[in-house]
Write a structure and sequence with these properties.
Layout (H helix, E strand, L loop, with lengths): L6 H9 L14 E2 L10 E4 L5 E5 L2 E3 L1
Antiparallel strand pairs: 1-2, 2-3, 3-4
The chain binds zinc ion.
């Protein structure tokens, strides 16, 4: 994991519809259920399934 990888910032970018490359495999992109993209707390890599999970004010890896 990159030292400067900021999960909450990354999730904000994903919610805004931006593509973010996987921090783990560097090949896939984080995806989520398209119906909940603006509110989703879970994003996962479409290649290796690395999971980003965020809950309000508390960040969990
Ligand atoms: Zn990956």
């Amino acid at each position: 994991m990159e030292k400067d990888f900021n999960i909450s910032e990354t999730v904000e970018r994903l919610r805004a519809g931006k593509k973010v490359k996987c921090r783990k495999c560097g090949k896939g992109y984080y995806v989520t259920n398209p119906d909940f993209i603006t509110s989703s707390n879970n994003f996962w890599c479409d290649k290796c399934n690395d999971l980003l999970h965020i809950i309000p004010s508390v960040i969990v890896e």
